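Appendix B. Chain record.
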Amino acid sequence: MSKLESENEKMLVGVETDSQSVNREIKDGVFKLFFEIPENAAELYSALKGVPCTPDEVQIITITTIISGKLKNDLAFVVRGRALVLGEHMSSPYANMPVRFLMYLGQLYEKWIKMKGEEKYLYGSKLYKIPTPEFAVFYNGMTTRPEQETLKLSDAFEAIGDTDLGSIELKVPVYNINKGMNEELFKKSPKLKQYAEFIAKVREFSKLHDDYAQAVREAANYCIANDILADFLRKQGGKIVSILTAEFDIDVAKRVWSDEGAEDKAIEIAKNLLKMKMSIEQVALVTGLTREEVEGLQV
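Structure tokens predicted for this chain:
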């Protein structure tokens, strides 16, 4: 590749030059990065609910901290102070999403109440009102799933308890956003459709290249040329390559953990993650190597 071609590609996909900035963004998925833009969140909510919503009515409150090495929720926002919306993008099994949403919900309400400085009202005699929780999962994995389905928290219970002692239920609609699915939803939210098209292009190009990062770059360039998330990809291209490459390496690592004789693959993955400035602790968690083994791989 010539110097001019290299510069053009960097300009096209917005390659980030600050490696520390890119590394900070790795923990945030592309879905979160895109739909945390209030304009995009507002369009998505309008499409799901069938009611108008403007960007100034949306307040993003996604949990961004990390506990026990696990990523927090993809997206959470409050609409007009009345609805708390939790959304997740999944390309893998999602049967446990109701349990995860339940765990997120308590933390999000705590965050919301503290943001308003109203903790004291929880202990008063007057009923304290909170935004109504609403949920959605967007699936585009390879396993065939229906266009729409609903998950229930109660399906995870060991046994259905005595409702006289109190009970809880949480229902999660799942929208299949693979090609040919949920066309009516895509008509209402062109941004969701373009997001799904970009992810599909990444999958398509990854079959053509051994270098996954190159596949992501080519998918981004294709989408920009065809006006699919063009502005977003121009601005965030470098971060997106880092995010998806990290997610791919982690997915590969998980698949090889249980393989007999997988140590060499784990070491190779660990080296790549260290080059991406991932911490020793995170690399050890992902690959199954010990801290000492990871430290020994540092250049």
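Further analysis of this model is presented in Appendix C.
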